[in-house]
């Protein structure tokens, strides 16, 4: 028998609407699962059980009263420990803020609460979200629930691991170079990177950049879309934000895959380093999927400049975010943060100018590339989840990595386009860990992309070779 915490968010919501499930019982089930497995997985860092319990009881009364309710009513949600939550410990994964308890929610969290969400927990992240391995000096490493010697990825690794184990039905993440997509792929869940600005954020570090976005994570595409109905929103304090219609994401339209024109690329024509085993896994997935579409052909976008553009502009972002922090607390901070700031300080304005020009060309070229296709499909990651003890790989596909973000080019190049991207599970890789693909849609075509991904997911679920089963929880109970 399926326990409430193992239901998808969509299923749980419908059962609460039908009065077949109490929000109080759903919360209790999530708390019991957290008690069972979080000691090993270490995905959840803090909880607000008292407020969550009160809000679950309120939600139960609301469902009993009938009528239309906000879309996330009664659903427990985890917020990545980079985002400010009232009364709930928020550390940013840093010793500098180890005991910080904010007095107010940031706007995105407040929107989720207005949409009915119960903010139950904070999820683990590397310090200030810097890295593809979720580990920090405050809470230690989060472990992949499919093999707890391996990383769940990062920087939204806590959220992905919590979803995969049923600790939460929905979780929030953020994405700069793939921080939603990387852990979603490695934990067998769904992560959605929206078009920049769709999820407004009032404390954006740099105004005009596609880099950092906030997005939903779920166990299926419909769950992620449902959560987006609470996340999305306009805010004049965010220069990239614009009017939107969040309620459109509650129920996805039906898409006929046979009418779609799809391009695929294994490595952007050799630009992105990829392990051979991942290339082979991706090739097998594409071979299986190709007949589902009207057109499915290999077409490599020109991302030859992406590596240098991303590294340079990422360093600008890190200077804006962390220069003063590194100057004052170098000995406490993660080496990833220090090295990014040092690299930025070594650059010139001319370097930044060249990167901006190259970014402008990359963006224009990609828009032209997308004119006659509906979707682009690429691997979700360049490597299998690495062992926590080994750390970030020093080489990928036989190519030495110059810095820790080089292994992310299969994801970070897509960041530069400003297009929405969704990570969807598509089976297991050569070492028996979850494998997945990234699907790219048209800029501002978030709803169309989610709908297409849901249709794709429906096909995947009836093919055992492409589906990913839940992890064995008996091995995780601590």
Textual characterization of the structure:
There is one protein chain. By secondary structure, this protein is an alpha/beta fold. Helix content is 36%, strand content 13%. The chain has helices spanning 9-17, 23-41, 49-65, 107-114, 157-164, 181-187, 221-231, 276-289, 306-329, 335-345, 349-369, 409-415, 446-461; strands at residues 44-47, 76-80, 118-123, 170-175, 190-193, 213-218, 261-264, 295-298, 375-379, 395-396, 399-400, 421-428, 434-440. Strands 1-3-2-4-6-5-12-13-9-7-8 form an eleven-stranded mixed sheet, with helices on both faces. A hairpin with a 5-residue loop joins strand 12 and strand 13 (434-440). Helix 5 packs parallel to helix 6. The mean pLDDT is 97.
The ordered string of helix (H) and strand (E) elements is HHEHEHEHEHEEHEHEHHHEEEHEEH
Unreliable sequence segments: none
What is the typical, i.e. mean, pLDDT?
A: 97
Total of helices: 13
Distance between the termini: 22 Å
**Helicity, as a percent range:** 25-40%
Largest beta sheet: strand ordering: 1-3-2-4-6-5-12-13-9-7-8
β-strand amount = 5-15%
Name the overall outline.
globular
* Tally of strands: 13
Give the class from helix and strand content and strand pairing: alpha/beta
Give a quick account of the main beta sheet: strands, pairing sense, barrel closure: 11 strands, mixed
Gyration radius, in Å: 21 Å
List keywords for this structure.
13 helices; 478 residues; 13 strands; alpha/beta; 11-stranded mixed sheet; globular; single chain; two-stranded antiparallel sheet
Fold blueprint:
Blueprint: H1 9-17, H2 23-41, E1 44-47, H3 49-65, E2 76-80, H4 107-114, E3 118-123, H5 157-164, E4 170-175, H6 181-187, E5 190-193, E6 213-218, H7 221-231, E7 261-264, H8 276-289, E8 295-298, H9 306-329, H10 335-345, H11 349-369, E9 375-379, E10 395-396, E11 399-400, H12 409-415, E12 421-428, E13 434-440, H13 446-461
Parallel strand pairs: 2-3, 2-4, 7-8, 7-9
Antiparallel strand pairs: 1-3, 4-6, 5-6, 5-12, 9-13, 10-11, 12-13
């Amino acid at each position: 028998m399926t326990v409430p915490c193992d239901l998808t968010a969509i299923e749980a919501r419908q059962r609460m609407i039908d009065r077949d499930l109490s929000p109080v019982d759903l919360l209790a089930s999530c708390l019991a699962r957290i008690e069972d497995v979080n000691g090993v997985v270490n995905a959840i860092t803090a909880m607000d059980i008292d407020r969550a319990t009160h809000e679950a009881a309120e939600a139960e009364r609301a469902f009993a009263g009938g009528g239309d309710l906000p879309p996330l009513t009664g659903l427990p949600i985890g917020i990545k420990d980079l985002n400010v939550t009232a009364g709930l410990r928020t550390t940013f994964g840093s010793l500098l803020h180890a005991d910080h308890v904010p007095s107010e929610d940031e706007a995105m969290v407040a929107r989720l609460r207005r949409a009915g969400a119960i903010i139950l927990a904070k999820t683990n992240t590397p310090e200030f979200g810097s890295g593809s391995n979720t580990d920090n000096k405050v809470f230690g490493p989060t472990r992949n629930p499919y093999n707890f010697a391996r990383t769940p990825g990062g920087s939204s690794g806590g959220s992905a691991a919590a979803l995969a184990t049923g600790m939460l039905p929905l979780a929030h993440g953020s994405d700069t170079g793939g921080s939603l997509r990387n852990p979603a792929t490695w934990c067998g869940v769904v992560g959605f990177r929206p078009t920049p600005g769709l999820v407004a954020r009032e404390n954006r570090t740099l105004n005009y950049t596609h880099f950092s976005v906030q997005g939903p994570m779920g166990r299926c595409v419909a769950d992620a879309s449902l959560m987006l109905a609470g996340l999305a929103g306009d805010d004049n304090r965010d220069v990239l934000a614009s009017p939107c219609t969040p309620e459109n994401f509650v129920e996805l339209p039906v898409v006929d895959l046979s009418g779609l024109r799809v391009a695929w690329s294994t490595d952007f024509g050799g630009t992105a380093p990829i392990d051979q085993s991942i290339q082979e896994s991706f090739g097998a997935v594409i071979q299986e999927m190709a007949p589902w579409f009207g057109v499915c052909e290999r077409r490599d976008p020109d991302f030859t400049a992406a590596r240098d553009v991303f590294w340079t502009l990422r360093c600008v972002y890190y200077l804006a975010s962390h220069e003063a922090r590194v100057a004052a607390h170098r000995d406490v901070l993660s080496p990833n943060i220090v090295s990014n700031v040092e690299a930025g300080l070594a650059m010139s304005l001319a370097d930044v100018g060249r990167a901006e020009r190259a970014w402008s060309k990359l963006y224009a070229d990609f828009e032209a590339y997308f004119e006659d296709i509906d979707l682009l499909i690429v691997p979700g990651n360049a490597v299998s989840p690495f062992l926590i003890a080994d750390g970030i790989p020093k080489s990928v596909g036989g190519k030495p990595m110059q810095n820790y973000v080089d292994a992310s080019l299969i994801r970070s190049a897509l960041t530069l386009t400003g297009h929405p991207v969704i990570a969807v599970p598509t089976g297991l890789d050569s070492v028996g860990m979850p494998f997945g693909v990234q699907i790219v849609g048209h800029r501002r075509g978030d709803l169309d992309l989610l709908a297409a991904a849901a249709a794709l997911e429906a096909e995947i679920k009836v093919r055992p070779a492409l589906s990913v089963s839940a992890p064995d929880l008996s091995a995780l109970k601590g």
